[in-house]
């Protein structure tokens, strides 16, 4: 425990202000509108603080993704039902897929950038956590089912490149949600 470095309270406040300012800029202008100088001005910190803390624009973008991912994982691992423990496995899986859809739509530009950065970028730590959680719920809801490939099939429509493409074609998040429900009901 002594080796764990604690963030100073002023640094934590600055980090929160920076991430809030960056999230606001991305929400208004998309990831292409993310400017280090504008984030610094909106957060009330120096540009040097941003560069020291995040390295560059992509580091800041990944920090935004990471922050939201940590909140999401905390919710499905230990939050209230139906997303968290305490609900039936099918109900939890449904809540998980709906929450993941919402999270993906909310950060679509950032996730699109992250998932297309390298050939297998989508299948990093967050995907492994999502897959493991969903496979566990599927195994509980449908004993004997091949939970791993079924989890992949349920997660596939939530890939940022595919979802961005479909949304641009006019598909709505409500239709994706309904389709996920139909797939889940088929287990």
UniProtKB/TrEMBL annotation:
Keywords of this entry: DNA-binding
Keyword DNA-binding annotated: yes
Q: Where is the HTH tetR-type domain?
A: 12-72
DNA-binding residues per UniProt?
A: 35-54
Q: Which domain of life is it from?
A: Bacteria
**SUPFAM superfamilies, from UniProt?**
Homeodomain-like
> In the UniProt record, does the keyword 4Fe-4S occur?
no
Q: What is this protein called?
A: TetR family transcriptional regulator
């Amino acid at each position: 425990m002594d080796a764990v470095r604690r963030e100073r309270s002023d640094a934590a406040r600055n980090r929160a202000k920076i991430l809030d300012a960056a999230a606001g800029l991305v929400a208004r202008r998309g990831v292409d509108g993310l400017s280090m100088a504008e984030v610094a001005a909106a957060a009330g910190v120096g540009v040097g603080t941003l560069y020291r803390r995040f390295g560059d624009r992509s580091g800041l973008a990944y920090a935004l993704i990471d922050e939201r991912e940590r909140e999401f994982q905390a919710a499905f691992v230990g939050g209230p039902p139906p997303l968290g423990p305490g609900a039936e496995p099918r109900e939890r899986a449904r809540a998980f897929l709906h929450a993941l859809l919402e999270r993906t739509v909310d950060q679509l530009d950032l996730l699109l950038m992250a998932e297309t950065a390298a050939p297998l970028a989508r299948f990093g730590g967050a995907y492994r956590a999502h897959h493991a959680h969903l496979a566990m719920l599927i195994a509980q809801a449908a004993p004997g089912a091949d939970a791993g490939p079924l989890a992949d099939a349920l997660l596939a429509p939530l890939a940022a490149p595919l979802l961005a493409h479909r949304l641009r074609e006019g598909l709505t998040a409500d239709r994706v949600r309904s389709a996920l429900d139909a797939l889940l009901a088929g287990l």
